């Protein structure tokens, strides 16, 4: 009977030790998972910031291209306006000359 008690006592001690080891392993496992999670979050944050910067650069480039197109259109219309102003001036000068000639012939 005493041997049986000693055997049970040793079994209980072994089970307690096994449980203690498992609890320690669980704590280590949790710490490892949390550390891995923190690394992944940091990596994703860096990727997100890089992507945001890339989108900003692309948007700026597109805006610059649009601005350049609009500047070209504005220059085109300014040139057309100057040409029309010159044409109007020439037409007025020509009409005035013709009118003076008509008046002079009368």
UniProtKB/TrEMBL annotation:
Signal peptide: none annotated. Residues 56-94 form a coiled coil. It comes from the Eukaryota. Keywords: Coiled coil. Transmembrane segments: none annotated. This is Leucine, glutamate and lysine rich 1. It comes from Mustela putorius furo.
